[in-house]
Amino acid sequence: MNTALLQYGNETSNSSLRRVLRMSVNLAFRDSMRLRARSLDVSPNAMTMMSPLQIASGSICDIDFNVPLDGRFPLVRAVSKCTASICVGTQGFRTSLKFIEIDSSSMQILGDLMRYRF
């Protein structure tokens, strides 16, 4: 499990902070299709993951995933929207999700992950 803090550019907003996160992600789409993917990184408002199938841009899905914090693995749940899904050779599709609904408990967990020192 790799969890390093990344910062893109010179921005200091929460949207620029991302944590490398290699965990399983469960996706449930509104048409009852279910999918399991692998996260690449996460921020307080978005996630990038590798998916075995291409997800249409604009698709809405419920997601859940665990994050490592102090020897625990609390569950994060959110409703997300696919913003991009790009084929990466034989590895699958690099998919970007934006969280459009997230409860306060899950938001707190992500905030703790962003502040956590490894």
Considering the chains and any ligands shown, give keywords for the structure.
single chain; mainly beta; 10% helix; disordered N terminus; six-stranded antiparallel barrel; globular; 118 residues; 1 helix
* Unreliable spans: 1-15
Shape: globular
User: Count of DSSP E strands?
Assistant: 8
Distance between the termini: 12 Å
Order of helices and strands: EEEEEEEEH
What structural class should be given to the helix and strand makeup?
Answer: mainly beta
Computed over alpha carbons, the radius of gyration is 14 Å
> Describe the biggest sheet?
6 strands, antiparallel, barrel
Q: Report the portion of residues in β strands.
A: over 45%
Averaging pLDDT over every residue, what do you get? 88
Give the helix tally.
Answer: 1
Widest sheet: strand order? 3-4-5-8-7-6
Give the proportion of residues in helices: 10-25%
